[in-house]
């Protein structure tokens, strides 16, 4: 699926690559979108693992959230499957939320417990942040400088969490630690 | 269309109410969603007119944006057509953006010019805000206290614009001026 545009991949391609009948596909998946869910989720797990390693020495929970957001944004928008997922609202946005949500909840939770983040209501904040995150990624796809657009989104996200403006700006624009991804993409 | 759930309204209902043929419908509109666009846009205009009157004496651009957001949120989530629009991603989110975007741009522009709002990049901020706004409205539809959920979203939106936390909280929770809507709903 990564070798050509997802739009061009038919269910027939998938079933013949997997050597199963067309009918069996629908026995397990309701649509082409649904077959992507585990793929998208596995990628998010691999990225999170690498991020955890890269940020292991980082003591500021706001920095962890800010730098993770910037890295995740680059990974997501750099991957053809995720790009397709983002552009097609036919794939429920909940899938995306599902795939990255628990990592976000873990990191944001640390910031709240330490008092570094302050939000009036967690449910309101998490939906607002997620909506802003997805909209920001979509905008970055067509931006002249996609990485800059992602960093600006991260800055706004940190403001939403109650961070002072100068801290949000600094974290959104400081150099990113390198990421070492395990495993093969194919 | 407002007299029963939009899901139950068929194109046949629309064409017979308007006394035109089924074929003429598709000559003008590609789908049932598309026929909603002018309706949704007209409602936004009517709400904005009422808001402009209600907030005519308000000197703080942040207050204008905050109170407008809270009122618009209540109107949007209180209207069956808009609720349906929100819940169905099949209707392009761009339609919503189109309908309320220019009012938002006008009010946010005033805040930026006066220095009350500070954003690193206007394109990044407007997509982040709009994503957060829509996600916040969707969450409010299922919230125990929908108005409170809308007000919390407005607070986060003001934070994103660079407002101090205490100002954002005050504006998000102060009493709303009453709105007088002209025209009939039917």
Record the SSE blueprint.
The structure is a homodimer of 186-residue chains.
Chain A: H1 11-17, H2 22-28, H3 32-54, H4 61-78, H5 80-87, H6 93-113, H7 122-141, H8 146-160, H9 165-173
Helix pairs in contact in A: 3-4, 3-6, 4-6, 4-8, 7-8, 8-9
Walk me through this protein's architecture.
The structure is a homodimer of 186-residue chains. The longest helix of chain A is centred in the N-terminal third of the chain and has 23 residues. In chain A, helix 3 runs parallel beside helix 6 and helix 7 packs antiparallel against helix 8. Chain A is an all-alpha fold and 186 residues long. The first copy, chain A, contains nine helices and no strands. Chain A is 69% helix and 0% strand. Chain A folds into two domains: 30 residues, no CATH class; 141 residues, Tetracycline Repressor, domain 2. Chains A and B meet through helix 7, helix 8 and helix 9 of A and helix 7, helix 8 and helix 9 of B.
* Average predicted confidence as pLDDT of chain A: 83
Order of helices and strands of chain A: HHHHHHHHH
Distance between the termini of chain A: 9 Å
- What is the overall shape of chain A? elongated
Assembly type:
homodimer
**How would you sum up the major sheet of chain A?**
none
Helix % of chain A is 55-70%
Could you say which structural class the secondary elements and strand pairing of chain A correspond to?
A: mainly alpha
* CATH topology group of the largest domain in chain A: Tetracycline Repressor, domain 2
Number of strands of chain A: 0
Radius of gyration of chain A: 18 Å
Biggest interface found? A-B, 37 and 37 residues
CATH class type of the largest domain in chain A: Mainly Alpha
How many helices of chain A? The count is 9
Which spans of chain A of ≥5 residues are poorly predicted at pLDDT below 50? none
CATH superfamily of the largest domain in chain A: Tetracycline Repressor, domain 2
Quickly count the domains of chain A: 2
- Write the CATH architecture name of the largest domain in chain A: Orthogonal Bundle
Beta-strand percent range of chain A: under 5%
């Amino acid at each position: 699926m990564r070798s050509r545009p997802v739009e061009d991949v038919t269910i027939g391609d998938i079933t013949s690559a997997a050597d199963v009948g067309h009918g069996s596909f629908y026995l397990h998946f309701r649509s082409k979108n649904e077959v992507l869910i585990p793929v998208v989720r596995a990628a998010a797990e691999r990225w999170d693992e690498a991020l955890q390693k890269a940020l292991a020495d980082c003591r500021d929970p706001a920095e962890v959230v800010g730098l993770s957001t910037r890295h995740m944004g680059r990974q997501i928008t750099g991957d053809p499957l995720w790009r397709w997922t983002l552009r097609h609202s036919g794939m429920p946005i909940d899938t995306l939320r599902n795939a990255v949500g628990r990592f976000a909840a873990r990191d944001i939770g640390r910031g709240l417990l330490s008092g570094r983040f302050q939000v009036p209501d967690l449910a309101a904040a998490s939906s607002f942040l997620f909506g802003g995150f997805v909209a920001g990624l979509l905008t970055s796809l067509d931006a002249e400088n996609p990485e800059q657009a992602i960093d600006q989104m991260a800055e706004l996200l940190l403001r939403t969490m109650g961070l002072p403006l100068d801290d949000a700006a600094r974290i959104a624009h400081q150099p990113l630690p390198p990421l070492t991804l395990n495993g093969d993409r194919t």
